[in-house]
Specification:
The protein has three helices and seven strands. It is an alpha+beta fold. It has one domain: Nuclear Transport Factor 2, Chain: A, CATH 3.10.450. The protein is globular, with a radius of gyration of 14 Å. This is Nuclear transport factor 2 family protein. It holds the Pfam family SnoaL_2.
C-alpha cells in the first residue's frame, strides 16, 4: 500500500471545473474518464447515480437547467487525507449572486474519485 497522498485539490477542482462546469459533453466525458474510477458512484441529496455516463448526464442536466452563465466556483482549496477529500464550493450566475453553497466529499481510490457525495448547505435566511 502506498503512503503517497493524491492531489486532492487537483482532483476535486478538476471535477468542479472540468465536469460540473463543462458544457461540451465530449470534453466532460474525457475529464470524467481521467478523474473517476471505472464504476464511480455519486450521492446527491435526492439521488444516487452509478457510472461515468450517468454522472456526465447529471452534470449536463444541471448546467442546462440553471442557464448559460451558471458556474460552480471553489471556495478555497480542497483538503484531504487517507483517501477522503473535501472541497467547499459556491454556485450561481457568473458575476451574479451566489445561489447555492455546498461541499463535495470524495473517496479516492488509486488517485481517482470512486465515490462522490454532494452536500448542499441550507439556504441563508
Amino acid at each position: 500500500m502506498s503512503t503517497h497522498e493524491p492531489d486532492y485539490d487537483h482532483l476535486l477542482r478538476g471535477n468542479l471545473e472540468r465536469v460540473f462546469n463543462e458544457r461540451d459533453a465530449d470534453r466532460r466525458a474525457r475529464a470524467i474518464d481521467e478523474l473517476f474510477v471505472t464504476d464511480p458512484v455519486m450521492h446527491e441529496p435526492d439521488n444516487v447515480v452509478t457510472g461515468r455516463a450517468a454522472i456526465s448526464a447529471i452534470a449536463g442536466q444541471l448546467l442546462e437547467q440553471f442557464g448559460p452563465s451558471f458556474r460552480f466556483t471553489p471556495a478555497g482549496p480542497a483538503v484531504g487525507h487517507h483517501g477522503l477529500g473535501v472541497l467547499r464550493w459556491e454556485a450561481g450566475p457568473e458575476g451574479g449572486p451566489v445561489a447555492v453553497t455546498g461541499s463535495d466529499v470524495a473517496q479516492l481510490v488509486d488517485g481517482r474519485i470512486a465515490r462522490l457525495w454532494v452536500l448542499l448547505n441550507p439556504p441563508s435566511v
